[in-house]
Amino acid sequence: MQVTRDFSHYVRAAGAGIQHIDLAVEGVHCAGCMAKIERGLQAIPDVTMARVNLTDRRVALEWKQGTLDPARFIDRLEELGYKAYPYETESAEATEVAESRFLLRCLGVAAFATMNVMMLSIPVWSGNVSDMLPEQRDFFHWLSALIALPAAAYAGQPFFRSAWRALSNKTTNMDVPISIGVCLALGMSVVETVNHAEHAYFDAAIMLLTFLLVGRFLDQNMRRRTRAVAGNLAALKAETAAKFVGPDEISQVPVVAIHPGDIVLLRPGERCAVDGTVIEGRSEIDQSLITGETLYVMAEHGTPVYAGSMNISGTLRVRVSAASEATLLAEITRLLDNALQARSRYMRLADRASRLYAPVVHATALITILGWVIAGANWHDAIVTGVAVLIITCPCALGLAIPTVQTVASGAMFKAGVLLNSGDAIERLAEADHVIFDKTGTLTLPDLDVTNAADIPADVFDLAGRLALSSHHPVAAAVAQAAGAKSPIVGAVEEAGQGVRAVVDGVEIRLGRPSFCGAEALVGGVTLDPEASVVAFSKGADRFILSVRQGLRPDAQAVIAALKDRNIGIEILSGDRESAVIAAAHALGVAEWRAGVTPADKIARIEELKRRGAKVLMVGDGMNDAPSLAAAHVSMSPISAAHLSQATADLVFLGRPLAPVIAAIDSARKALHLMRQNLWLAIGYNVLAVPVAISGVVTPLIAAAAMSGSSILVMLNSLRARSASREFV
Q: Which of 438, 621, 625, 666 is catalytic?
């Protein structure tokens, strides 16, 4: 009977003519595994991308539509020595928990055995072994074997299984020499015991496994903590929503069955499943994920809400603008995945070094054994030295040097409201010494506000806000939002390009152009911000002028000051009119600015700075900023930016504040410093340790301690990337 495998349910479109699937892969432990998997999958014709995420052991694959069966990828991974299956968050988390528990059991067994074997070794090593009775010495050795052999067989499974899969598929990985070293140490110890030799190495073998398991368990837990950020995002996704299927009838439906334009009910205590706008009701909502603001926001008519927001108190009706994978939360999740999968040039350097590891280590150990034999040593001493070389040269520290820093830094940046969208963004951002800001939507908020609301009588402003609800113009929406209007005026009529009018208590009221409201004479008499838009309101014979504009981001001045403190050059390039740009520049204390620039002008300025040796960080949000974002050394966009700008930018920041720009720069500089430190630690360790091991003065036990200690030191150093940003506000 022929069995077919259908994975079409897990395949999604990733662009024009491109398909995408995520696979969970077991047995991925190091940079060497990542490189082997990516090379093996990219060798398949029509595969356009294969990227391993070591944090959650996931492989992201893309290929030309209709050319490949996803089952082929699983078969190829099996040939490479890895078991794979379609990635699902729940099953992946369950598998991760089970593996973590298994590692902990192995560690417990190894640690227990180590303590007991070391106690048995003390009488042998502390006294004069030659003075002991052979029967006594053999008894201690056999008792050690009785403890160490079954303990090693159980505790060494994570390494033995991985090594066997690699060897059975005619490949190698880091676990192969580890397994060879452990088995050689145990085998030699049994032979030594049978031959009544003075020394055995059961303690070295079982302690090696203990150190290795400690390092692997710590590494896995650190990755799980960072991956928990993505898991927390996934937990924010509501799978169903209460959709209105009639005027007063709702139905609980899956999110995939909800479309833009539908109306959903959001009850107290529920998480919003969609992006949309409140059309009825009033409540406090927690949308700190999007805005970074921890205080609750009052949601009422016209307030935007996002998937993942928590409704606190009242009941809301929400008109859907996006659902399922089109929501802002889904976009943030995809950007975070990019961050966790990103590959830097330092990581690629570590990958290449790890790729050479297995053959170099095996060759070094073999040459050491043969060299000592040629020099006159017996086979026993030569093999002991070779085992020490095998153990001490394990490049676990090198394999962890870059991924651990990048993983920790990515998590720290996310907590600061920054998502990576490029593999080497951290390194390029750390080098930035000049920042170019776009003005509109970057230094300013994307939303409009009424700047002179305090000068308008409250009853008049409330009436203007209610009238504004009947208009579709964005300026009118800003007036309605600022006035807190809830109910529109019945019978209002909008005149295209002019404004909206209505009659209230026999008096005509109008909102719109000054000429439409008969308020031209007032415009010149009102002191307005040079970048403000003017909207007039009339009620009978009374006339009022409203100033509507985009306000500066609340912490823009503090961010500019912080950049200056870091000796970073700053300038503003904007396509806006000169009066508006100079007002923003003066308010922020920026001396260099240009107004009325085109996308080509921005690129020309960036190229000019490059020729001077500057490393330019471009921060922009508009579609016209996309070319300059691509031309800069590194680039950032707010989450409110056009999709093209988001796709082009190396980093994306969340919320209304501009503070994530500083947080990202500080984190990147700290991370780059730690990456370099880790590489020097790993390289320096091998430069010092390998010659010492070859010289024969290091026992397998000391080699195990040194190798594991270097890995733990690298991981602990990487954790310093969690707190990189300095306070500046």
A: 438
